[in-house]
TrEMBL record:
Residues 122-161, 162-201, 241-282 form the EGF-like domain. InterPro entries: cEGF, EGF, EGF-like_Ca-bd_dom, EGF-type_Asp/Asn_hydroxyl_site, EGF_Ca-bd_CS, Growth_fac_rcpt_cys_sf, NELL2-like_EGF, NOTCH1_EGF-like. GO terms for molecular function: calcium ion binding. The lineage of its organism: Eukaryota, Metazoa, Spiralia, Lophotrochozoa, Mollusca. The chain crosses the membrane at residues 542-565. Keywords: Calcium, Disulfide bond, EGF-like domain, Glycoprotein, Membrane, Repeat, Secreted, Signal, Transmembrane, Transmembrane helix. It comes from Magallana gigas (Pacific oyster). It is found in: Secreted. This is EGF-like domain-containing protein.
Length: 617
């Protein structure tokens, strides 16, 4: 059939000789294309094999499991007999003496205690420590084992009990020590075991004793130690030095240093701060210090708590400082003392202490006296604000207690003073407050505004006389000496500070007064006087030349002296003390307000004489 391409063979289909089909040999079947032959897997269908089925090309084979043999029918399986085992029962059984049987699958099956392929190898059970008693030994036997007691032990109720060999009193001459499974001989103290480890011989301890004297005795000895040494209570053969410093048997002072020596000890007081022989040490007293208290402290004893006995350092009492406690601590300047910030209190430093006081008087800090309110002038009045410091012997406590009385008395006396001096336009004095140091009086002088110039001129004259001491005021039946005066503006700020050395014309100007037009101020016998500008011109010019030339010559001489001195002491620094009189004169000149040349020369009148300037050319 030309149209067919069969993989095995073809045949006619039916009666039509032109129609054919493909077919396959036994064990194969025709595939889906009708031409290809595919092997039939008989093992996937009912094949009647008892154990195993193996597919082959066009057929299949039956097989048996290990330990079985295929029967003649090709499908049945039978177990191996007792002489064979394994696959297809091909391996013969060659089991040894330890075998129990021959298994058709595994071969030789061993009895307990045997191992190996043929059961000829004995199992050593002792390797797994089957004997659990503490004193048992394991003995291996063919196919088994047994447990026995170790030497020195007996079996009792399945337990190994130690044999006490020491129950035999003859076994050792002195002491017998039973041990587990054995025994040992021992000797009493003072004896040692012989080489046979049984007999005992006396020990001569004196051969090893370190004591000073030794006596050997049978089985013992006796040691003796000298004074300062102690026998070792354990060995009874060593003489140890007694550390009296550690055991407390010394007689040193608690402040002393104890030094142990061989057989004795020494005591020594501290190098500084104590005196004594070591057995008695006394701390330095009465402000002494150093070795054996041989030095005297430099502390001020009144201001010092203690003086360190070792270093001599002074421990100051509160309120004092310095190496010798002789410097008072000014707590007010340091700000360590805080007073009420209402300005009614003031911090007062005292030697070694500090406290707050009322600034304007009063003994109760919670109720300090306050300054009086300032006087309010009318349209026809003017006033000058003054702060005057008077020298007085009034104490601080008296001031605090009687400050209100001082306000009244000073106001009364000042009013009387200005009235007696006939100050033109004067109205009254209002004392606002009084402060301590010596006594500082703040007051206002009220006068008529219509006579303002003459009012201030008269005030300046009175103040000049007060400052110079030509006149004084009396308060509380005591003459008051005025030290300084401060002129203030209407807001209370300082304008000018005046002292006893102030020039009268300067005082006049400080009060805001001046000479009228065409007049000038001169210091005439300590009084500010207004005179005509045109008088005594010739003599004035001479005095002018003289007053100018003398200072210039002095200045040149001083400069030359300074230059020579500077060349000699180029590397030295000169300290100028502000308290020197010359420096005070310089300060006075510096404080003078700016004026023209003639006014300056008038101010320097006490140095160059009184000068009447006819004209200011």
């Amino acid at each position: 059939f030309p149209g067919l391409n069969c993989s095995y063979a073809c045949r006619q289909q039916g009666l039509d000789p032109a129609s054919g089909v493909c077919f396959c040999e036994s064990g194969y079947q025709l595939g889906g294309d009708g031409t290809t032959c595919i092997d039939i897997n008989e093992c996937s269908s009912n094949n009647n094999c008892v154990h195993n089925c193996t597919n082959t090309d066009g057929s299949f084979e039956c097989g048996c499991a290990i330990g079985y043999r295929l029967q003649n029918d090709g499908i049945s399986c039978e177990a191996c007999d007792e002489h064979f085992y394994g696959e297809n029962c091909e391996t013969p059984c060659k089991c040894g003496r330890g075998a129990q049987t021959c298994h058709h699958i595994d071969g030789c099956v061993c009895e307990l205690g045997w191992t190996g392929e043929t059961c000829e190898q004995d199992v050593n059970e002792c390797l797994t420590s089957p004997c659990h008693g503490g004193h048992e030994l394991c003995l291996n036997t063919p196919g088994s084992y047994r447990c026995e007691c170790k030497p020195g032990f007996n079996k009792s109720n399945e337990q190994c009990i130690d044999i006490d060999e020491c129950q035999d009193s003859t076994i050792c001459p002195q002491k017998c020590v039973n041990t587990e499974g054995s025994y040992a001989c021992a000797c009493n103290d003072g004896f040692k075991l012989d080489e046979n480890e049984k007999d005992c011989e006396d020990i001569n301890e004196c051969q090893q004793a370190k004591c000073h004297d030794c006596e050997n005795l049978p089985g013992s000895f006796r040691c003796y130690c000298r004074d300062g040494f102690l026998l070792n209570s354990t060995t009874q053969m060593d003489c140890h030095n007694i550390d009296e410093c550690s055991d407390g048997s010394n007689t040193c002072s608690p402040h002393a240093t104890c030094t142990d020596t061989i057989g004795s000890y020494t005591c020594k007081c501290p190098d500084k701060g104590f005196k004594g022989d070591g057995h008695e040490c006394t701390a330095c007293e009465d402000f002494t210090y150093g070795e054996q208290c041989s030095q005297t402290c430099t502390c001020n004893t009144s201001n010092t708590e203690t003086c360190d006995g070792s270093s001599g350092v002074c421990a100051c009492k509160t309120g004092w400082e310095g190496r010798d406690c002789d410097i008072d601590v000014d707590e007010c300047k340091r700000g360590t003392k805080e007073c009420d910030d209402t300005e009614l209190q003031i911090c007062v430093n005292t030697p070694g202490s500090v406290h707050c006081e009322c600034r304007y008087g009063g003994v109760d800090l919670n109720n300090c006296i306050e300054p009086k309110p300032e006087y309010t002038t009318s349209k026809i009045e003017t006033k000058v604000k003054v702060e005057a410091r008077f020298e007085t012997n009034i104490g601080r406590q008296e001031f605090l207690a009687d400050s209100e009385k001082f306000v009244e008395e000073y106001e009364k006396s000042l009013n009387a003073f200005y009235e007696e001096e006939n100050v033109n336009g004067f109205s009254s004095v209002k004392v606002l407050s009084v402060r301590f140091g010596s006594l500082i009086i703040d007051y206002e002088i009220i006068g008529s505004i219509n006579n303002s110039d003459s009012f201030k001129t008269d005030l300046a004259k009175c103040m000049t006389q007060l400052l110079s001491g030509k006149i004084n005021i009396t308060v509380l039946q005591q003459t008051q000496v005025i030290l300084t005066v401060t002129i203030k503006d209407q807001s209370g700020l300082q304008l000018t500070s005046l002292s006893s050395s102030a020039f009268p014309c300067y005082v006049l100007k400080s009060f805001g007064a001046s000479c009228s037009s065409g007049k000038k101020c001169i210091d005439s016998s300590g009084v500010a006087t207004c005179v005509d500008d045109s008088s005594d011109e010739d003599s004035s010019m001479f005095l002018l030349y003289l007053g100018v030339s003398i200072p210039l010559v002095l200045i040149i001489i001083a400069m030359m002296g300074c230059w020579i001195y500077h060349q000699k002491t180029a590397n030295r620094v000169q300290v100028i003390r502000l308290s020197d009189p010359d420096v005070q004169k310089m300060k006075v000149c510096k404080e003078l307000p700016k004026r023209n040349f003639f006014e300056d020369m008038e101010a320097l009148g006490p140095f160059f004489g009184q000068v009447d300037w006819p004209s200011k050319k």
